[in-house]
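Long-time lurker. I teach an intro course on protein structure, and each term I like to show students one example going from raw sequence to a predicted 3D structure in token notation. This year I'd like something fresh instead of my usual example. Would anyone be willing to generate the tokens for the chain below so I can use it in lecture? Attribution to the forum is fine with me.
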Amino acid sequence: MIWPENVISITNHGLFLDSPEYSEIVQQAKRLNVPFVVGITEDAGQNQFTNAQVVVEVDGTISGRYDKVRRVPFGEYMPLRSLLKSLGAPTDLVPRDARAGTSRGWLDFADTRASVAISWEIFFGGRVNEGVTDGATFIINPTNGSSYTWTILQTQQVAASQLRAREQGRDVVQISPTGFSAFIDSNGTVHNRTSIGEQQVLERSIQLRSGRTLYSRMGNGVYIWCLLIAFALLARRRSRAIRIGAS
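-- Reply from a regular --
Happy to contribute to a lecture. Here you go:
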């Protein structure tokens, strides 16, 4: 059972493990006999918070945690806060900064490994590739684009999930309470996409895949080489046209 990004917010310097929400999730995990992968935020002191996905097992143990590494600037944190504040910028619009995670981008649950890209991390191929390199068999993208509801970003995020699926040869599960939820197969085809913010339980069998694609092995170098080859061909064609014109 996979839930979206930051659907549980723990305030007053509390911990998810001590919250009533945790107890309720354990009850549901036992009832359904499946682990829950849940998006949480927790206070982290000194005007900071964490944004993470945690795995709650059927017996209530927290078997895994991934804290978001790529934070949204001017959304989840304010870069150069002191400087911008001295210049009169409204830095109080982002009163707290998300603390960046440092762990590798994957979680183990249900006897397999998933590459995890929280929210806009799906736009960065390297974040997803990290989990695939470490043996992930599919990709999850828990997200919560509440600041961008009814904007083109929601469609762009689905497109980014399609790109990651084709790059890695992996199925993607995208989960959102405020945007689109969907399954994307390894060919980039979208299945069971909800409407924006539609409350629905989605179920679908996905393929768990191993091995690595050319992109997974070379990263963005694939695109760089394609651009270099294209420029070389264009330069050669232009040079040939100039020689023909001169003759």
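Some talking points for your students: DSSP finds six helices and eleven strands in the chain. The chain has two domains: 8-212, 213-247.
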